[in-house]
Design brief:
This protein has 387 residues and is of the alpha/beta class. It contains 17 helices and 11 strands. The strands form 2 sheets. It has a 7-stranded parallel sheet, sandwiched between helices. The protein has a 4-stranded mixed sheet with strand order 9-8-10-11, with helices on one face. Helix 5 runs parallel beside helix 6, helix 10 packs across helix 15 and helix 11 packs parallel to helix 14. The mean pLDDT is 97. NADPH dihydro-nicotinamide-adenine-dinucleotide phosphate binds next to helix 1, helix 6 and helix 10.
Length: 387
Amino acid sequence: MARSLSLLGATGSIGASTLDLIRRNREDWRVEALTANSSAVELAKLAREFDAKIAVVGDESRLPELREALAGSGIGAAGGAEALCEAAARPVDMTVSAIVGCAGLAPTMAAAARGGTIALANKEALVSSGEILKSAVERAGATLLPTDSEHNAIFQCLAGNDVERVRRIILTASGGPFRTLTAEELGSVTREQALKHPNWAMGAKITIDSATMMNKGLEFIEAHHLFPVGLENIEIIVHPQSIVHSMVEYRDRSVLAQLGPSDMRVPIASCLAYPDRMETPLVPLDLAAIGELTFQAPDEELFPATRICREAIQAGGAAPAILNAANEVAVEAFLAGQIGFTRITAVVESTLARYSAPTPHTVEDVLAIDGEARLRARDALESTPVV
Ligand code: NDP
């Protein structure tokens, strides 16, 4: 029987990869809800193609456009933050959480509270509210399937093993497009250069996060929440080929690695079919053609983001939510041409130094901290010294 699926963030890069897999296996899936923020026409097109029950735009001002594009289709249309959560709460077999940023938190929580299976790509939700989201998942008996390629790799290498048996988790990082630059060269990189990831095609925000290595720092926090082996047992290693997606070292020093093409359809397929496996249209790995897999220690002098993230999760409380919000603001400012590349991490660090808040206990607490941290980060945009 066909399984039902809701896709939060249908018009994004993860959304497109997910729908590509669904398109190839139409008879196995029934699409319930598809969501976007402002891409109303594109969303309506997808909703029609996949015969969704409802399409929702986060930006309510786009609802008339969505309604018009869906006219005569019989597909429901809704708009606004609450409508996103209502869509996420509709009962389905699988929710793919692929909204970018903290905007995905409330809808992901709504899906978790309903208790289904969530393929979680939206790492910012877990970074901002790790314990809160995990408690909601536990309370409702929901299942989180890690979709981020590294965490999906770790999940596969764990293969149901208890984390007690694990000595170390090794997160691989491509190092991004600027891995080989000097500090001076890094100071003058452009938006266009930063948007060209050497191995992965992704949305703009995560591509910039990969260039600053903030992505790996966020993933360090994400790994800590998903696989509680202790922060000191999570290591980051630069692996420029992006073929080994992460590794797990067991107590006996056996190291298991997951390898695969650098294409998000692999981890997404692993979540969609879990615990089974499904076909993907990808060219199989040709290790002889790849030739070499190399590894090196990260340079935290040049790319301080992983250190900043480690310190934030060590500090705990509100710090990871503040870090995430400040990073979202700084990345937006960089993409808008307001600040240079190296100021992204400077703005994050400066916001963390200037703002502290009590430990959040609810999503509302997290969203309040997120809002305040954004204001402080915007102040920091003006005042952070150029580095
Ligand atoms: P994209 O920017 O490509 O897509 C983001 C999606 O979220 C779009 O559908 C967008 O709608 C929607 N969206 C954006 N803002 C809001 C908002 N305020 N309210 C509701 N919906 C919103 O991002 P990616 O697909 O690259 O990434 C999605 C998530 O997955 C991120 O958390 C990222 O870190 C994670 N991830 C991505 C990977 C990748 O390869 N892309 C790999 C691993 C993790 P609209 O089109 O209308 O703007």
